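User: structure tokens for this one?
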Amino acid sequence: MDKYKIIVLGLCLAASRSFATQNPSVTKLLDKYAETQDKLQSFILKCETSDKADYQMVGKTMDHRSASEVRYDGDRCLVDSLSWGRTSINMKEFYPKEKAGRGRYLWDGKWGLTYTGGSDSPYGSSSRVIIDRNSKAKDRKWMITQLYGGGSVVRGFLRGDDERIDSILRRANKASVRVYMEEIGESNCYVIDAKTEHGDYTVWIDPSRGHNIVKTEVQKYENQWYMGRPLPKDNRISHYLKDIRLKKIQDVWIPVEGHTNTTWLSPQGKILSEKHHVITDITLNPDHDALDSFETNFIENGALVALLDVKGITYTWQDGKLVPKIDEAVISEIDKMTEEIMAGGTGVEPTVDSAGPTVSELLKRYAETQDKLKSFIAKAETTIEHTGAGNRTENETCEFRTDGRQVSHRSSIWGKQSSKDKALYKSFLWDGESLTQYNKGLVFIGKNEISKQRVIATEYKGSPLLGIFGDNHDRIDSVLRKIENATVQQLTEKVGDSHCHLIEATTIRGGYKVWIDPQHGYNIAGIEIEQKGNTGAKLLFKLKNVRFEKIDDVWVPMEADMERTEGSKTMKWHHKRTEMTLNPDHDTLKSFIADDIPDGTKVNILGEFGNQ
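Assistant:
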């Protein structure tokens, strides 16, 4: 064999080690990552973090160290943390570990509680408790992300993100898997590039060790999400996660060490931050009840207590109870609140009857009903009126099928210019991996889950009955959970024959009013959205006159009026479900097979995320 053939053969062998001939899709890689994460729903871990920051705009630095124990059961979370060093840019001395400050943060599933001080604190026995029902503390993901560094490495929350990374990537505007695998350490890894509302992400996934994420690079620009809000104008953040060390524990690969670098550029100057996280001990699936993991027995008698939504009144903690420190003349005004706090004897257990449900409780109950409606077949009739640029009236019949993962929609549309027997037929099918759209004699096939969400929101006229409204492609409870200032009106409002709870929320794009009907499975009885649409024009959306029907012991929205105005264009439609079957046998019915497309139809294959 001559030397040229040897060189060519050598190059081919080298390429074969890093080239994936049939790369898995972005969705499949994220599913594999999620499978590993699903094994980490309950744990106790100990972690140590060093955090150095250089605030160049003011010429000051921070050198912060912490050691934490974290207990988590998939919902409840307790963080017990010691902090020392130069913990703020205004501190001149580096405080040693023996002078560490101690703080505990508890989320018990309904309440957030912060406890500082106590007899085990180097700063004396003065201790304080803050109980929070309405702030970020009610979001356990925020607790996991913001309160300890090493835990965020384990759970997949990157700096400034309040969602796990796979959740963010699944909603990417554009995402793809690189053709070539890349070597990180001793492993060949798949590389995902994605553009999202949270920033531009590059993620390395190690298939040989639980499909864990072993490296990330993130670029965030103005108006992209950081710490639960849009990044200000002319700001940019670069964030890198690297040097991940994995360890196999109880047959699960777990990240136990990692390093992050963050650069924040703004008109005020530059901030450089460097963190190193080490998990020193981790126990999976402990018996939290036997260990009293989420009890409040660490709070000492005499601790001062403040309720964030009760202004001007303080309490003291005594044997697990709250004792108000107020004038007798106003005790009657807060008796109901005190009884609510004391329900269950823990000091943090609310009762819905005394002060009304919280936003979180209403959304949870709404989600519980929606979870019973994951698999169904719905046949419907819709009358549609368009005004503005070209007035017209249309009629539509459709059939919508879903099993919670796959979706099939088939519809026939006719109007003034066409009769029902000459109706336009179109359909779309999402089989869990690819989207097949049939319209006007053409077929388009792609693998973009974001396109699937958009098609459901725009093509299916019953999407508001699924909780999808306006320009949002996520279900409304997911949208509202991200809004920090969402509140429940104290008094109920009558909608139809029901007394409904009203949730109000504002964002940088606009405001929401959502009426939740407790008499009909906590379904949505009405909604009003006013925001800036995707085109830049003002968007108004309304849902009203909702009729519910009980099917298989589940309250189901069957009929409603909807209205959408954007700029000078208005569309009004009345959607009525004529037939609704819950939990059908989709396999027998062949619900998710594209058997409606004629032979010989021209097919357009799109790139994985929408590029032809």
